[in-house]
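To fix ideas at the outset, we first show an illustrative case, written as a sequence plus integers encoding its fold:
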Amino acid sequence: MGDAYAHHTQQQFHAPPAAQPRPGSAAFAGPLPPRPRAPALRTQAPGAAGTAGPGAAAGGGGAAVAGPPAALAAPLGLLGFMLRVPFMALGLGFRIMRFTVVNGLHAAAVVGDRVLPAPVMRAARGAVSAIATAAAGGADLDPSEQAAAFVADFKSAYGDRHPRWQESGWRVASQQARREFRFLFVYLHSPEHEDTDKFCRQVLTNPDAVDYINTHFVSWGGDVSYSDAFILSQQAQMGCTRFPFIALLSLSPHDSRPALVASASGQDIAADPAALLVLLRAAVMEHGVMLAAARAEVEEREHARRLVVEQDAEYEASLAADRAREAERAEERKRQEEEERKRADEERAAREAAEAEERRVAEAAAAIERRRDAARAALLPEPPAGAEGSAAIRLRLPDGTNTSRGFPAGATLQAVFDYVDSLDATSYSRYHLVANYPRRVFVRAAHGPVSLAELGLVPQAALFVQPDE
């Protein structure tokens, strides 16, 4: 009976369980500590060890643990409950105060946007954000860490079936939605609100809602107790005054500021996924044309840009081909000019060589003609055949012809050279005379002044005329 009373009083006065707070939260919102129990009475029967006392459970350790007497159960349960009451009241007070402050700030922001100048509201929002950051410990997480913490908490509480939350700040998620020409689905999570848990379990994890959101939108969720989500909730165009709160934002390529196309909060969407789907589908039908037009415009500009790039590339390729052809033609012209210059040089060299040869031949012929005239003038008279001391010399010329002549006594070999020089068949500048038996070679410079008798060419001799060149 005492246990039944304790259980009844615990159900009657126990506050509803709140969502699990993050580490460092100021509110004492969490599971209550377990009910304290009286220590168990350990007894041992008198006598030998290993025997159990009366009323003890059977065991092999030689000792038995006996529970408290039934008469103490109800007073102990009531005592534990009375010890927990102050902590329960304190935690409930903190939760109520936090809920009141957050919703009061949202309401003040909505009213302030209507009655106060925009600079004043921007300054007020900055001050509130700074105060919230300082209250959280002065060192707030960056937006991506805040988003990652929200996603981790959401998965831990509601499982893996949920919108594909972006683990980044909402500004980065907005840029992604702008690049993909999609709406940004925003969910602002208030863990202290009484409808938050029901909305997350019945709406945000509904299969139809999850599939539709993941198919059509870029999704971002944030806990308003973090600065990034709190700052977004304070934006004038959001109009966030109740929770849970969802919004659909349109990001135009021509405007850096997001535009609110649909929003809902509170009991309107807290328990009905169909209502959320109707709201989202209506917003897509009404405002999706803007995104389609923006996408078509950007695609048209991109197509025009690509066309210009391709045309420029083709033009540059044509110019490069023209330059290459011009370079080839210039190289061909250079090669032809080089060949022509080389051919002209060769022709000039050949012509000059031929002219030099002609001059040499002419000069040689002229020299030979002058030598012939001088030799004919210097010829000694031919003596009668058989004259005493005369020499009959027979000469064989290089062309195979033979000639002979007599030379008077006392004549030198120079007279024989003069005779050879006077012949029309002698067309060589230098030559020497050769006697075969015995073989002797007679040179003009060495043997010219020597008499024929001294050379043994008297009374007769046969000589061969051999050119030196």
About this structure: The chain has a mean pLDDT of 79.
